[in-house]
Amino acid sequence: MTTCFTQMHAARRGETTDAMRTVAEREGLAPEVVRAEVARGRLVIPANVRHLAGQLVPMGIGTVASVKINANIGNSSVTSDVSGELEKLHLAIQYGADTVMDLSTGGGIDEIREAILAASTVPIGTVPIYQAGLAVTDVADLASQALLDNIEHQARQGVDYVTVHCGILRAHVPLALRRVTGIVSRGGALMAAWMTARGEENPLYTHFDELLEIAAAHDVTLSLGDGLRPGSLADASDAAQFAELRTLGELVERAWRRDVQVLVEGPGHIPMHEIEMNVRMEQEICREAPFYTLGPLVTDIAPGYDHITSAIGAAMIGWYGASMLCCVTPKEHLGLPDADDVRVGVIAYRIAAHAADIARGRAGARDRDDALSRARFAFDWETQFRLALDPERARAYHDATLPAEHFKSEEFCSMCGPRLCSMHLTRDLQRQAGVPAA
Asked: Model's pTM, two decimal places?
């Protein structure tokens, strides 16, 4: 059996690793709490031993930690450029992405991945079936061993976590064929096509033990993909989605028996009134393994604005207990995101994750809000800009109408002007009443 190098393996032996100490410091937790949560499986530290030996700064994903966000980058067959993907990576990290997934499906995938891993201080995830599938003309020609070999290849490169669609089985596929939007997961659709063409069971399910050996040898966290996630409100919370979830619950326990860290991926389109139920189902079936969700989008009618429709659902699902939120950009459903789309998506999701932390009563979560509010009431414009999630955007909006430097010390903005500013009037009332500012 392969030697196990996972954080979970260390935690279950009572060892507090340097990575656990780093996570404890970042989260304001005791190291023994982090160790216990990793041992239990409710907290994962995606840290491939190869990337950890480089410049990776360990981070934790789980309900005991702050809500995390992932940003997707990657090329396509239409556009392929290493420098462009590195620009997306740096912007994602600059604006607060906790992890980044390289979803490249175009040319030079290995080169792009190696450049991203070398440049990234945050965990990097991938979906190996994309690259493996590109090596064959027809997905049905993809050999099970070739898929496993590609996963191991990416693990050797240093990838910290991989989305693997192990839970979609042959028996589940007919459940999805009468949906409004069918199977919207690329990995899920590829697996369904492979099983149907070959008349065989999902190779990632039948060879799951071999997959666990790869994960254990490199400490690659398995992100158990939701190949049958709903792609529309009409398909939300249906039989196909929950059939796969039950299989994922089985695989979580199998992974834990081998000390392999796992995330469970969650739905993409869910109406607001079903979000809490979906979290409770995942926590029960998957024994509180960290829940990683795409949105969810709470309405289907806003192409071009799905960073908003999904951020609404993301804030709610984070509040109810999801551990990581996958960013959706304005380009969702429409095209490949560029660098600015990534920035907008990350900011939207930083807002959602922060709102969830506040709602969950996380210690200190509101400190920045209170500090910015005090600066706002004091007309301390520079502090407002500094505390903003997007300081450049905040400054640009202010300066668009009041660009002169002396306006940075004035007690008004261009919305109300100097005579009708409510906060200015309130400050006058405070001074007259001798009431100090809060």
From this structure: 0.95
